[in-house]
Specification:
With 58 residues, this protein is largely without helices or strands. The chain has one domain (1-52). It is 0% helix and 7% strand. The protein is built from no helices and 2 strands. A two-stranded antiparallel sheet has the order 1-2. The chain starts with 35 loop residues before the first strand and ends in a 9-residue tail after the last strand.
């Protein structure tokens, strides 16, 4: 997974997407910030993380 230090994670932000380059070994987000999109969402299933970036990409 990621070699990020715990100080590089977003406190309280978990991530279960194993193919995201920001997902750490302990399933936390190491992105500098996150962007959750779909302004018309009315349920959790209608939102998505626009910060997602597949492992191995820039």
């Amino acid at each position: 997974m990621s070699d990020k230090k715990h100080s590089d994670i977003l406190p309280g932000v978990g991530c279960d997407v194993t193919n995201c380059k920001y997902n750490t070994v302990d399933c936390r987000c190491s992105a500098q910030r996150i962007n959750v999109q779909n302004e018309k969402a009315s349920s959790k299933g209608e939102t998505y993380c626009a910060t997602f970036c597949a492992r191995g990409t820039n």
